[in-house]
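Support reply, case 0932

Customer input (verbatim):
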Amino acid sequence: MQRSELVKFDLPDVPGVYLFKQGRKILYVGKATNLRDRVKSYFDDDLIATRGPRVVDMVTKADRIAFETTPTVLEALVREAALIKKHRPSANTEGKDDKTFLYAAITNEMIPRVLMIRGKDIDFKNKKSQDIALRALYGPFPSGAQLKEGLRLIRRIFPFFDTAKPVTVQSKHQAAKIEFNAQIKQYPRTFEAGEYRRTIRRVMLFLSGRGKELRALLEHEMRAAAKNERFEDAAEARRELFALDHIQDVSLIKDGNLTGLRANTASARIEAYDTAHLSGTNAIGVMTVIEDGVPARREYRTFRIRSVQKNDDIASLKEILMRRIKHPEWSFPKAIIVDGGKAHKKAAENVLSAAGLNIPVIAVVKDERHRPREVIGAHRVFVSDADAVLANSEAHRFSLARHRRARSKSIR
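Our regenerated output:
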């Protein structure tokens, strides 16, 4: 397939899953935060360096592309796993077996747990893992890190137990009086067995890639509860529906098989910059650092904006970078991440160039809901989209936290 052929598939710029096909045969399944940009990246000149010969061979053989859109990247993640399990595409699974992948498992217990289990520890024939009977298995998931993050996000909507040991109760028919807050540190309501079983059914629907069916179920429950004046239950169903569509899944932007790309970015320091202000006052700029794909919080720095008197993100970014450059005792990064588009990227490049520094700049572009829509300039300098978005997300979180602190001090 050639790059010029992409236009006929009319790929949208929304999250979803894509399938490279040769006739009816599915060669590869992947997920994307932006289907159009993601598929387009398979036709970059450096494809063999970033993704390897197997992917290059797959693209050469493919003669068409199919896709499914999803409301969020999180749903694209579980849909990708479901399609890989169903079709076993050669470019996804060749040279691997089930033992190398990770799976999400629902235990077959009175109070089920949701666990992440490696294939080598699963007896698929008897649906067991060591001495644990399994009710359901979902996967395989190509990335263990993404599965872990995906389960964390799902648990924020439908809280479940993922403890190492089984959750026990005094008797089979007695509701377990266990505070979720003590178990998973995020759900304050008292545990009730019937409610928890409903939660697990919803988790199972989600993990099987049946998001539309799950939404229809929640909408039905919300209407029925409202009709019967069970307003608290109706409000809970409405909260779950809202959360499904608005979950902040930026940490799942990492797309496809970036193993080769990761190898090229090992031990690399990445810095990200962001600003926060209230009508141009109390402006704060921050620098966050990612090393080996992990936030290095000891390296974070805060800058109070001095020279900019109004709401001007580009001018604030320039000031922060110029002040950062005056600290050569801080290791210079392999790349710098800025929040914004091409104008922000160019402004940062100009500051670095004027200082005689040849440091690549990567821009993370947001959509109208302030979610990552595009990453500009990452692949050509061997930085993964995942690391770029992680750094950007950390910078945004840190700048807001610092700004709130500064604003509260000024109010006092």
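We compared this against your earlier run and they match. Two observations from our side: Confidence is low (pLDDT under 50) at residues 171-177, 181-185, 255-267. The chain has 14 helices and 14 strands. Please reopen the case if you see a mismatch on your end.
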